[in-house]
Specification:
The chain is mainly alpha-helical. The chain is built from ten helices and three strands. The longest helix is centred in the middle third of the chain and has 30 residues. The two termini are 41 Å apart. The N terminus is likely disordered.
Length: 313
């Protein structure tokens, strides 16, 4: 067999979305914004005595590191997309980056709870006007970062029968990080205003605890979704049933075994075993699934069923 004929049967293993280049660039912009605001808030929190502002600054520092992980994940996936060492490509690197970011979020939330509890026990004086101004600037930066990182493609697939197959978990993690920053900025502003107007200085560290709990809730969702991708969790039941129906609608085919899992944000791989009285080449069964555009790597095993076909009787 000639080399060009062999190439017809070779599988493509580059399962990195074309959208990653734009997402990588946007993530780098947000890393820069976050680092600048981190320095401002940590400095302001220490100088003005605000725990909620200091917590927000630490939070942004951790997010700068997590966003750096997200940017690295995009670079690594793109750099090694065609590396044959990775059996199914580097499409899962984004999910790995998202999982690492979620773990980082949980750790930061725990630190926020500890520091806030300490400040509740040992209150300090706060320079409210200056702290509110810094927190306000932080909120503007966080909202701008969220706008930069918004995933329009994710919104456009909101009605897809397998919506999660189109989700970039790396970008989602970065987006949740800046949303968490925006939340802590809002809580800091509310606490500082309450302290300034009504003397409720205890609200400053209390808001640190509230923010930490909300962040933990977001982290749980991200950990759940990314771990499913990393552990090759099966695609949804509805998607698997649709694929099975398409195969079994042809002749007397029966699907004896079916596995569909994600190998990239917009790419699925599958293994299917078909039992039939009228076996055909694997390419025939692949053509039955041509409408499944994101099923990019399919392995078909055809098993001949002994005896006469029921349709022939």
């Amino acid at each position: 067999m000639h080399e060009h004929e062999i190439e017809r049967f070779e599988h493509r293993h580059s399962f990195v979305s074309d959208r990653h280049t734009g997402a990588e660039r946007r993530t780098r912009w947000v890393v820069g914004l976050t680092l600048v605001m981190m320095v401002a808030e940590i400095s302001g929190g220490m100088f003005f005595g605000s725990m909620s502002l200091l917590a927000d600054g630490w939070h942004m520092g951790s997010h700068a590191a997590a966003l750096g992980v997200a940017a690295f994940a995009y670079w690594f996936a793109r750099r090694h997309a065609a590396n044959p060492r990775y059996s199914f490509g580097t499409g899962k690197v984004g999910a790995l980056g998202g999982f690492a970011s979620a773990v980082g979020l949980v750790l930061v939330a725990l630190l926020m709870v500890g520091e806030s509890a300490w400040r509740l026990a040992t209150p300090v004086s706060i320079m409210f006007d200056q702290a509110i101004a810094v927190a306000g600037v932080g909120l503007v930066v966080n909202l701008a970062s969220a706008f930069i990182l918004r995933d329009d493609h994710d919104h456009n697939h909101g009605h897809s029968h397998d919506h999660d197959a189109h989700r970039d978990h790396n970008l989602r993690a970065a987006y949740l990080h800046v949303l968490a920053d925006a939340l802590t900025s809002v809580l800091a502003i509310v606490a500082l205003i309450a302290g300034k107007l009504y003397g409720l200085t205890w609200m400053d560290p209390m808001m640190g605890i509230v923010g930490a709990l909300v962040i933990c809730r977001w982290s749980y969702g991200l950990l759940r979704d990314t771990s499913g991708v990393l552990l090759d969790a099966e695609a949804g039941d509805a998607r698997r049933a649709a694929i099975q129906r398409k195969i079994e609608a042809d002749a007397d085919n029966r699907v004896a075994d079916l596995h569909i899992w994600r190998v990239g944000p917009e790419h699925l791989a599958g293994i299917v075993a078909v039992v039939t009285h009228d076996p055909k080449p694997p390419e025939h069964y692949k053509r039955l699934l041509e409408g499944e555009s994101d099923l990019v790597h399919l392995t078909v095993e055809v098993l001949s069923c002994p005896g006469d076909s029921p349709k022939a009787a």
